[in-house]
Amino acid sequence: MKKVSLIVLSIMFLGLMITPLAIAEKAEDNYKLYCFQCHGSKGSGGGINAAALSTAPRDHTSATEMKKLSDKDIFTAIKEGGAAVSKSTFMPPWKSILTDDEIKDMVKHLHKLCNC
Amino acid sequence: MKSLKILISLIVFALFLSVGISNSIADEKDGKAIVDSKKCGSCHKMQGPPDKTIADVLKRKAPDLFYAGSKFKTEWLEKFLQKPTIIRPAGTVYLNNIKMGDKKDEIGDVKPCASNVSAKEAHEVTEYLMTLKEPTMKTGVIVDESFSKAKAKVLFGQKEGCSGCHRDKADSGGTSCPTLYNAGERLNPDWVFDFLKNPQKYDPKIWMPRRELSDEDFMLLAKFLASLK
After folding, report:
1. Residues B86 and B18 in one domain
2. Contact of A25 with A100, CB cutoff 8 Å
């Protein structure tokens, strides 16, 4: 009896250890929930908030536009917001929601969107 | 003679007070029973913790109510429950309500809250909801109403880009989030201050990133929103 409960307990403990504290989300899912609102479902800048922005959201599908930016710039723009790269403050800083690893995945995801 | 009078008036006062208190406790209990029988919990989370994954957020049908007593103003809540209006132009989770277009996304059909209660029930439900508090929130933070409107508008509309997601007027501002043009009637300014300091404390996956501002600036924004009626 005792042995069984010990085994059950240690399995429960292991389970707890394996569950990560914050679950890293897939870049696609982060992009949907956080970026669609301005950059749009196609990534081309047609989000439902776009009309309220004094600067148009970057067209993430445009290779010519996106090629102008280095990965480091893109990373900083997402993490610290537009103001950190001398762009519009309507591009918010995402570091309170996305981890550095999630932002790195996001940079890769943007390369897929612009095919560049 | 005089002391007897004082004693009697004290007793009367105490009786009066206790009837008042037990009345509101009775309302609270009735309010909870109404919330249960009307199944408010089938759409709203009435108990924490908040959703921790995007998958769970996408299943959300209505805003969380387990800190309603910290968030709302009593008078607004009582009115709203009798005749709900639309607060979020694109629904609770905008992502679930957009028609995705090639060039532009459009907002699809959005329904208001399904609450449909009588004036008496609304009073009782409000008494109950007002007991649901966020324990870490400081009260008595926003005490006076004086602030620089010009400075606040620059923060809201330009420097911090709040208007990109929120409407501060009925016809201008973003639509993915709650409208704020009647925030002064709806929201407790102390809660607004606490929320702005860390939206992720209330809702880890909410699509409003935290801005790093001084307490002074957060207070300015909270006072500005409190003035929108």
Report:
1. yes
2. no
Q: Does the beta carbon of B178 lie under 8 angstroms from any beta carbon of chain A?
A: no
Do B211 and A36 lie within an 8 Å CB cutoff? Answer: no
Q: How far is B161 from chain A (nearest CA, A)?
A: 5
The terminus-to-terminus CA distance of chain A in angstroms comes to 62
Using a 10 angstrom Cβ sphere, with 0-12 exposed, 13-18 middle and 19 or more buried, the burial of residue A30 is buried
pTM of the model: 0.91
Indicate whether B13 pLDDT > 70: no
Nearest CA in chain A to B208: A34
What are the residue boundaries of the structural domains of chain A, listed by start?
22-114
Q: How many CB atoms lie within 10 A of CB B36?
A: 11
Q: Is the ipTM of this complex over 0.90?
A: no
B103-115 burial, b if ≥16 CB within 10 A, otherwise e?
A: ebbeeeeeeebeb
Chain A residues in contact with B164 (beta carbon < 8 A) = 38, 49, 52-53, 90, 92
Give the Cβ contact number of residue B209 at 10 Å. 18
Q: Choose the weakest-confidence range: A14-28, A101-115, B59-73.
A: A14-28
Contacting residues of A for B94, CB less than 8 Å apart: 37, 48
Q: pLDDT per residue over A9-55, tens digit each? A: 555 555 554 444 567 999 999 999 999 999 999 999 999 999 999 99
CA-nearest residue to B97 within chain A is A48
Tokens of A51: 């009309």
| Residue B43 to residue B127: CA distance in whole angstroms | 20
A22-114 is classed CATH 1.10.760.10: yes
Grouping H, G, I as helix, E, B as strand and the rest as coil, residue B72 is: strand
- CATH code at B162? 1.10.760.10
